[in-house]
Amino acid sequence: MCGMNQYQNISPLDFRYRVPELEPYFTEEAGMKYQIMVEVAIAKVFAKHGICSEDLYEEIKREAPKVTVEEIYEEDKKTKHTPRAMVNCIQKRVSKEARRFVHLTATSSDVYDTANAMRLRDATKNVVLPNLLKLEKQLIKLALQEKDTLQIGRTHGQHAIPITFGFAVSEYVSRLGHALLELSRANDNLKGQLSGATGSYNASSLLFDDPEQFEKEVLAELGLSPASHSTQIVEPEFLVNHTHALTLAFGVIANFVRDMRQLQRTEIGEIGEGFGKKQVGSSTMPHKRNPVTFEHIEGLWKELMPRMMTLYLDQTSEHQRDLSNYSSGRFVFEVAHGLDSAVRRLQSVMANFLVDRKRMKQNFEGSKSTIIAEPLYILLAMAGHPDAHEAVRKLTLKAEKSTHEVLILLAKDRALKTYYEKIPKKKLAILARPEKYIGIASKKTEKVCRFWRKQLKPLET
Amino acid sequence: MCGMNQYQNISPLDFRYRVPELEPYFTEEAGMKYQIMVEVAIAKVFAKHGICSEDLYEEIKREAPKVTVEEIYEEDKKTKHTPRAMVNCIQKRVSKEARRFVHLTATSSDVYDTANAMRLRDATKNVVLPNLLKLEKQLIKLALQEKDTLQIGRTHGQHAIPITFGFAVSEYVSRLGHALLELSRANDNLKGQLSGATGSYNASSLLFDDPEQFEKEVLAELGLSPASHSTQIVEPEFLVNHTHALTLAFGVIANFVRDMRQLQRTEIGEIGEGFGKKQVGSSTMPHKRNPVTFEHIEGLWKELMPRMMTLYLDQTSEHQRDLSNYSSGRFVFEVAHGLDSAVRRLQSVMANFLVDRKRMKQNFEGSKSTIIAEPLYILLAMAGHPDAHEAVRKLTLKAEKSTHEVLILLAKDRALKTYYEKIPKKKLAILARPEKYIGIASKKTEKVCRFWRKQLKPLET
Amino acid sequence: MCGMNQYQNISPLDFRYRVPELEPYFTEEAGMKYQIMVEVAIAKVFAKHGICSEDLYEEIKREAPKVTVEEIYEEDKKTKHTPRAMVNCIQKRVSKEARRFVHLTATSSDVYDTANAMRLRDATKNVVLPNLLKLEKQLIKLALQEKDTLQIGRTHGQHAIPITFGFAVSEYVSRLGHALLELSRANDNLKGQLSGATGSYNASSLLFDDPEQFEKEVLAELGLSPASHSTQIVEPEFLVNHTHALTLAFGVIANFVRDMRQLQRTEIGEIGEGFGKKQVGSSTMPHKRNPVTFEHIEGLWKELMPRMMTLYLDQTSEHQRDLSNYSSGRFVFEVAHGLDSAVRRLQSVMANFLVDRKRMKQNFEGSKSTIIAEPLYILLAMAGHPDAHEAVRKLTLKAEKSTHEVLILLAKDRALKTYYEKIPKKKLAILARPEKYIGIASKKTEKVCRFWRKQLKPLET
Amino acid sequence: MCGMNQYQNISPLDFRYRVPELEPYFTEEAGMKYQIMVEVAIAKVFAKHGICSEDLYEEIKREAPKVTVEEIYEEDKKTKHTPRAMVNCIQKRVSKEARRFVHLTATSSDVYDTANAMRLRDATKNVVLPNLLKLEKQLIKLALQEKDTLQIGRTHGQHAIPITFGFAVSEYVSRLGHALLELSRANDNLKGQLSGATGSYNASSLLFDDPEQFEKEVLAELGLSPASHSTQIVEPEFLVNHTHALTLAFGVIANFVRDMRQLQRTEIGEIGEGFGKKQVGSSTMPHKRNPVTFEHIEGLWKELMPRMMTLYLDQTSEHQRDLSNYSSGRFVFEVAHGLDSAVRRLQSVMANFLVDRKRMKQNFEGSKSTIIAEPLYILLAMAGHPDAHEAVRKLTLKAEKSTHEVLILLAKDRALKTYYEKIPKKKLAILARPEKYIGIASKKTEKVCRFWRKQLKPLET
Q1: To which H or E segment does residue B309 belong?
Q2: What's the complex ipTM?
Q3: What pLDDT sits at residue C132?
Q4: Residue D274 belongs to some domain of the structure
Q5: What pTM, to 2 d.p., does this model score?
Q6: DSSP letters of C2-14?
Q7: Option in D103, D303, D323 nearest A295 (CB)
């Protein structure tokens, strides 16, 4: 299969969206390396307890990592049982004396599930989470930078009342921050096992009085701990939670990029992806500047989010396990991989993110006159008007049909006059300068950024 | 619409799977009651800060709960905006003076999202979680009762090595316990808000210097707190996490019932649903005893589990909110409702759960002779055999083709003799009595039950 | 349970989104009526073949429909088997002689699955499909009406090249038309059965030499036919296809409403939902006009689309059936119900659909000057320029940085001059009047509308 | 990236489940080849209409296929627009004169979507469908071979009434047959396009009076036709239908393998996967024979079935297209790939499928005595008993508690005697030999197999 290149692959994750930094964790080859680590850890604890000699352990530790994935798959042609093939390959490389201690008392799943938990944990800790944290920092930076940039708030795609662009970005600081805490927690909760064929430690009980202690020590070597119970497989919920946390974070990012590509619409034009000099927007319309990265990320989310269904389906495994999660379980790394690929692309856009403050101002100006409806109704109510909302609603409808603005109609309205006059001058100012009607947008932006910076500090290594 | 009965409904959750205990939380009528509670709490904090008088608050508190859902929907014909209709109805019931303080500074979503968080929280705390805890206790009871009941462990639907039935049940004690902790945590994390039309406190800033403090106090009245940020809507992730936790628990239960209905198969017959005296198994086969409850529950899981997709989709809402989560969000209680309905049915089966220990023994006996393959290979390895697994594999194949059992063939095998003789007598006993080869199944069952009893203690009120 | 009203329901489909026209098909009560029809049809064919007398059939035909759903559920308390309860209730109402012919040879699923196929078929044929066809006609009307209305085409949310608004609408004419053909086909393919407890006609073989003929005749009475095989249940794929077709149509509609609510954005403003006089846009911002119906429909789609997962999961039923599709199967009508509810709302918006042609023109004008990039590159290429795309791309970038428009820069460009001069005058006109660069948008709109009107003709009854 | 091997991939579809026969369709390299075919076809029709000379077409036809995927991705580093990069690479290889005709009037999506439809169509037609048909034949063969093999029918996992194993298999013949017709139909319906940047033929209108004719001719060269409308992209529903048909077929197969692995349970043992001589069942339990292929296939189904969600999500694309389906759309081939991989594995099991007729007989014998409940109730009813079902239900309960069989209790029952004596002798025989109570199982099996052989004939090439 050599001479093979990435374009001879089918999965976009193996060419277009490939993340080289994740190869040490997620390739099939990496999987084997991790399984071998588990086998070595078992031998180590055997030696510690005098089951085998230190020398034999040292031999296993030295020889096992030499086993190649090619060797294993060659052996697999015979065994049709890859984990056994791996054991056979290690055994072939060590002395007759050491051979029998390889994999002793373990069942394949002990090694396989434990290795997979390690792979996912290490990839998350070393690559995925740091990248997400880097993105979070870019969001914080952008939020703070634009904390005072006036933007019209939008609900239902309609102009509502003003905010600042930084405040809008701080939404994502907060939501992504929350999702990252969840992810970190789920990552710390991934579990391993060494409980034998049915989870009841039958085999290891032949060697140890306290086989749970044996399990604990092996897992500790690998930085893991056991769940409160296992069958032949680790309880699936820890992995389900982990993928859920990844999906949760992806959902936040999907919302962010959808927002951004909407703000990049020609008619809105408030933000933009930076664009390479020779980059082509369209193969036939040379003038186009498209939010391709934002769109690309939303597409990856649509592809990977539904995979949670597979995780939920894999919660059911008959009795002490059926194997129907074995093939589906092999795809589980793709969610983390795809998310990381998306995050990397987004980072590069964030590093070159265009904000058009002038355009934001212009867009706001267009709705300036109607924006005051809300503060007006509240100020009238505070001034004693019993049905201020309804009164302002009618005034607005009237303004729509006339050439006059709300404020002018207001001034002319006798019924409202008494209340209008009671509004404190200072408050009235906001009706004249609706760009001041932004609540605590700026202060809140700062607060959110400060809060999440602090909350996420412990996640950085 | 009166004279209506439950059979004139379309959703099975409104007739067949209806849970009357959940009506105070999940009906449309209940929704309105909760929204009114939020409006009252707002008035209360107004009074506290002197925005309105205590008397006006008392009036609102007294009159608002009198508003009926019928009134609201009558008003809604005009407004086509149910939350506004609700506000109008309250306003109609109070004095001119009080009227203007109703809903003042709040946007519909403030009230709606906060009320929904309360509904879900209360239903979970008062009904769903207690029911799940009751089920957990039934599982613990069953596990402890059967902790020494010999059962053949099964992987791939094939006899593997022995466990005890209590140990098998303790798998579900552990997994459900874990899911309940998640659910409890997610329930405590549901959030409310009172941050105005775009989340930036524009309106409440007109009344309060510290509008976040105002929000906090109102939410505190309702037993909630705000998230670190909100737009027009509460950050969706808290609800997504809550539904995920429900789905996680449902997945564990789905696995349990699938296991049980498999064990109830005619050929296995190890357990059974109790059966009413006049209950009919089949409309045409009068002799049938079917695991209908187990099947029923698996069906509800298949219906409700995919709804997580809707939750994930509702993570994306454009800018300060689009309303596309409004109709989908109305279905969100169904997951909790359906789970609770399933749990109730399962409880009644658990209360009348049949265990056929004799049949378990018989099933074990059928595989007795091959079970020893595993301990044999380990004991031979411990005795120095370098390729014990392979040697035993061949021995097993040989036994399959001969009329002799593995132990007899073993005794005759010269190559194995040397190793065989080295096995300590005490260990050899297990080969003769494979029913003793159950590892720490019994002890582990106790430990798991003890652990989860303690862990879940704080969840009981 | 009387005194109950719709607000005491939990499912939004039983109150807010309830469609009274669907009650004769989708309520639990309706389900019982349909099952009774199946029982009557069985008796009819018995009489036809002389198994029972015509008189007994007439008695069953007369008495069976008198059975009420309340009676059945009363009986169900004993049997805990609703279909049997229904049979018992019929039997109680008829003479001793007739009693034994009720349900004879049938298994519950024969009656249940057949009745459900009828319910779905009738609801689709009488309500859902006609409503969708009505919507299709509204789309056709709108498309034809706006076939010449200039609109800027948008890809990636960016202005691309011009089309007409009618052409944009004709996209949905075409896609919805296609989906409706699929739905009609799936509806005609729903199947019934009368093949007994395991699908092998064991029971009916005791009465008939050709039990398949018996099945065919009963189903023919009900307007159905059998599949090529059945177990205890009808092959699930016919229902899966039906729900898929509903989901497919819903997806088209979801795309339409998302497009429309984007076009209703404040900054775009090309179309709008009509708005009631007293309708409230926001409880706090009296000036808002929100695309609430479009949003509402997208939400229903997000809720119902993932339910296809349940249908796919229900494809697997162990051996001659497990019952795990029984509870999930009860929810299956909700997809049709929710779609119909959405379509009704959309119809009312379509009846009052606002098109702002002036705004469309304005939006086009904004991009007028860059639009010519595409025709320019093609005309230059036709005139012999070997790298026209690249040349125009550079020209566009230049224009962006200068105050001059592309056409002016073009006139000044020496390298392009030779090619430019070769472009036929008639073609050059398009560069000066880019609003003419709409291809065959108008003609195509007509063609699409004509085509689908004709294609869908046979679906109207 | 050379020296790379399949184990350095992440997607299991690129190593473990890789199908070399699908490489000509589904790799990235294959994608480029197909896109080049589209570009060549465009040039061909240009020549046909005298837009370019025959010589220039011949040049493009000769040179374009020489472009390598490596070249394209090298160019892509500049353009960041792969389809444009591909066009550039072709242009570099041809004369200045030919260059301008490459891709002229086409937009990237025209080429991309058309090429993808071709890839999926060819892979389905040449590989996936033929493999499924081969599987269907294996099922037919097995069904016919076992058409008279007595097996106990099972509903709810409980013994019901007897069928034959061939009849059970014929269920899958029928369901898979149906799904294959759907797949073939969906495959024939895949569409291409050449309608320009917004689907309104703006660019091609500059060259052709009837640009739809131009489109038709190009697509005809590639064996495709256009849909009734397109935007920048082909209407998504054709692809959704195609993936639905694949998923539908996969669901049938998933049900089959679940059934089979249940029948392979130790306690049932009616069928089995053949097993290689050196194959290892368990790394620690050398005696195990597991249904690993059946499990494996169910796992792949769990992984790929939820991907339909992505297809449904990709139905919505804003206006004349957003690009959010571009990344998700790249994964679409994986469903077909994974299904084909599963089918191949299943074929090899089917070729070596073990049926244990003796065991089937034994399992039947165990329930022999209760099976007669159904025919007994029908015969008593036919003999005039008005409440035969209830009478037999009681008799069965009695038999359960006594040591006597139903038939003996029946003989002793005075109330039933009168009816019992009226049953024709010939019919009574079935009560004594319940193995004859199999309805038309055998005949129906033949009929189903004959029917589907004929129906599927036209699908074979």
Answers
A1: helix B308-313
A2: 0.95
A3: 98
A4: yes
A5: 0.96
A6: TT--GGG-SSGGG
A7: D323
